[in-house]
Amino acid sequence: MAESGKRRANHVTCSEHEILEYLNRTEPANRQLCEFKLRHPKPVGILTTSSGKLVELRETTTLNSDSFSNEYFIDFLTHNDAERIPERVVHASGTGAHGYFEVTHDVSKYTKAEVFNGVGKKTRIFGRFSNAAQNLGGSDLVREQKGLAVKFYTREGNLDLLCINLPVFFYRDPIEFGHFVHSSKRNPRTQLFDPSLRWDYVTKRPDNVHGQLWVQSDFGLPNGYRKMNQFPIHTYEINNKHGDKYYVRFNFISNQGIEFLSDEAAAAIGSRDPDYFKRDLYNAIENGNYPSWNLEMDLITLEEIKKLDYDPFDLTRLWKKGTYKTIPIGRIVFNQNPDNQFRDNELSAFNPGNLVPGIPGPMDNVFRGRRSSYRDTQTHRLGINHNRIEINKPLYWKVYNRDGYAPVRENMRDAPNYYPNSFNGPVPYVDPSRPNSRFVIYEPNAVDLEPASEFYNDFLTEDQRQRLVNTTVRSLMPVPPDLQKRVIRLYTLTDVDLGTRVAEGLKKALRMPPPPPPPVLRLTQHYKKDKSRPHHH
């Protein structure tokens, strides 16, 4: 009787009215499984092992059986042991979306890149939105830079533009990368995010101060992935079919507008939904409210560069107004969520060195370091053949790279595996429009605090300046006194008003009594198995 009732309970069905009511009142992210069942009113197939053996019903349990003769059990158990891959060192926590890029303006005068030419042309893209320092599964509601990496599947190869939501970067020397990351991640002893690490590094490397001001300002905490701009940071060299060179900074400008969260609002949302950014993006796409960004480029000619009074290749500063012109190119639209986030999001591999003809790319030292480092990290995470994984596979490829860990796909079949050869293996092409001259950049070691001062005085409003001070004060509260003094000194050198406000705000905050501990629930009696349930208060 009990067994019969259990079977009936497992086959309870809902009326059509109940299902429709559920779908209408539930957000897309929560009704995904129900929608799958509606699309597949019957099971999608017969269960098998990974080798394709059909699984018989009695093999789906190991109770009262010889479990180690059960191939389904062994196959499933051992696969679970190995189903995780190394998480990204940075930007580990993120989500992906498919979409397209559409050319809206003729820019053939400036670049011969096929992907950016032909008004109305559409190119398939994949984008990955992410937090910079959070571990895989970390909260979206943290004050730090947010990333968007876009892969364009062009007929000339994959073009990867890796962006952050701040228009300036934190350092100019690639040797700083690992130390910068460590200072932004968890304390190796406490396994906690420690503001002392970050502030210590900023004061030891003052070229970080401009980027740090952006993070501590409203821009450091946008209201979701859809409502922020994105910037590939570097100054890119581009060229047209005649070999004429130009220098540009690409910008992705959100068509959803720009919105920010206060620390208080972020804390309230994060306590309820740490995946707020991911959920917002997923639901928007599922509801047909496709997020989009206009792609434009700020452009300077070689002759104009020679007359500038600042370094346009410096990642830690903005270009000065009036020294460049802005040219629209097109727009990116994300209109499809992945069916499987691991397959597309986790297995996606981006490299700023993935460029196409007409976009030779940046020449600064940070970029040179990144194009090597990113390839190395993807090889560590995904294997040497990561560009043959479906989400990374270019539209066309002919290589002499062979073998290694899967996927190798057809492994170039029986074609010659060395170059040059006399037997008609792949051959390179000649690009007559490729510029012959090379532009060399000499970078100074001196730190220029002027861009940070201009951001504070000219970019921010008075209300935004005060919020930046308040955020900085809260961040400095738990750090040692000597480090607090170093931060105040650096901020005073940047701008006297900024340093004075932070010093006064910190002094006032330190005089205030600490907040009371949060309320907790405690047992009012010792728990005993032979007694009734304990009471709580």
Structural class: alpha+beta
Number of E strands:
9
Low-confidence stretches: 1-9
**Helix and strand run:** HHHHEEEEHHHEEHHEHEHEHHHHH
Task: State the separation between the terminal residues, measured CA to CA.
Answer: 41 Å
* CATH class bucket of the domain at 94-169 and 221-392: Mainly Beta
* Continuous helix count: 16
In this structure, how is the largest beta sheet organized?
9 strands, antiparallel
Entry summary:
By secondary structure, this protein is an alpha+beta fold. The protein has helices spanning 2-10, 16-25, 32-39, 71-81, 177-184, 195-204, 209-216, 263-272, 276-286, 302-305, 341-346, 365-382, 450-459, 462-476, 481-494, 496-511, and strands at residues 94-103, 122-131, 146-154, 157-164, 236-239, 245-254, 292-301, 325-336, 361-362. Among the domains are: 15-81, Cytochrome C Oxidase, Chain J (Irregular), CATH 4.10.91; 94-169 and 221-392, Catalase HpII,  Chain A, domain 1, CATH 2.40.180.10; 460-511.
Please tell me about this protein's structure.
It is a single chain. The chain is of the alpha+beta class. Among the domains are: 67 residues, Cytochrome C Oxidase, Chain J (Irregular); 248 residues, Beta Barrel (Catalase HpII,  Chain A, domain 1); 52 residues. The chain is 31% helix and 14% strand. The protein contains 16 helices and 9 strands. It has a 9-stranded antiparallel beta sheet with strand order 4-3-2-1-8-7-6-5-9. A hairpin with a 2-residue loop joins strand 3 and strand 4. Helix 15 runs antiparallel to helix 16. It is globular and about 75 Å long. The chain starts with a helix and ends in a 26-residue tail after the last helix. The N terminus is likely disordered.
